[in-house]
Predict the 3D structure of the following.
Amino acid sequence: MALELPTPPKVGMVSLGCPKALVDSERILTRLRADGYSMSADYQGADVVLVNTCGFLDSAKEESLAAIGEAIAENGRVIVTGCMGNEAEVIRAKFPEVLAVTGAHQYEAVVDAVHQAAPPELGPYLDLIPQAADDRGIKLTPRHYSYLKISEGCNHACAFCIIPQLRGKLASRRVDAVLREAEKLVASGTRELLVISQDTSAYGVDIGHEARDFHGHPVRAHMTDLARELGSLRGPDGLRPWVRLHYVYPYPHVDAVIPLMAEGLVTPYLDIPFQHAAPSVLRAMKRPANEAKVLERLRKWRSICPDIAIRSSFVVGFPGETESDFQYLLDWLDEAQLDRVGAFKFEPVEGALANDLPGAVPDEVKEERYARIMEKTAAISAAKLAAKVGRVIPVIIDEIGEPDDDGDIGATGRSQADAPEIDGAVFLRDVGSKLSAGDIVDVLIEDADAHDLYGAVSSAG
């Protein structure tokens, strides 16, 4: 009689928050899979459910608490982890039935909690193969793009932020470990690497930018060196991956990355969290007030790499922000001509220094300023995208549609100016049946609106 192997316990995952939290979720699930667990796509099939929470803003905390409540109602066996895990007393007061609560990137504690809640089925036949043969790990993103986390924590003390309290001071990963992970991802089909951290520009500062050997040559733990090495990787098809840099503070050494973009080693895209432009607001936020120099540097970067796209985010309604301050920001945006902009209304976060600042801005004023900044940036975006009509640009395919009544197939992709989830898209018509997600094709842009582009695969490509 054939040996009947035990059915492995199943784990469900609800992952909230930023891409860095998504990477944490992937690492947790990869470890659990190595321990013999399988994954459940729904509450009903799971022996235990993990909720990876976000605690950056009060609204994010409310979303996290709602997700915990839903998981308890639908399944009943819930483990909470992530940034809001640092407020275990709040979670347990509202949901005393949760099985365990752990903080951000406490992988071992999460795994131990799962082991207690749903013990793995151990045995010689299973233990001999604790991990998939390809060793790629669990991915929650599509196969063709991957987030690459290079550090944890942050050394800044911004008045509106509690990230250092949640995730600690900067702790950089070894550069050879980062490059080995990236190499595996690219070898397994990743066409786009999205480099993330709380402060990508500060990578390696805490470890003295120590050098490590990678394929016979030393590489420093430094953003520029890392970006150059990532851009030199090759996939199975011999092509370079797109390398997209997120959360880049505009330190002087960022200038050295721009020539790498002009050479094609790094995707011409920078995600820079400016947060505001008015000097008085930046000082209150405890952020560098060098908005005029930033404009000068943006002009220099564009002269070196004309196709560079700059994305940023801004806070409106920060305590003490006057109408004059806000108008200064709008005028600065006219000068800066940023490609992609996100904004959010200030809200107090428990533990943030900004809570004690005078000059609270009324909610109705925040709403009005938020609407004005979004209108301003949408107009800038529309003009910049309209200028791309008639050009042929590279596009990475994210999704292939179903044939319509005429048999035509459309697709959704992104240009090099678009990061997944947060930026715009490129909608393609009549792509035929040969394209797949992850393909990079030349697209003739035929139309544009305030956020997205529309086109067709270039016949010249």
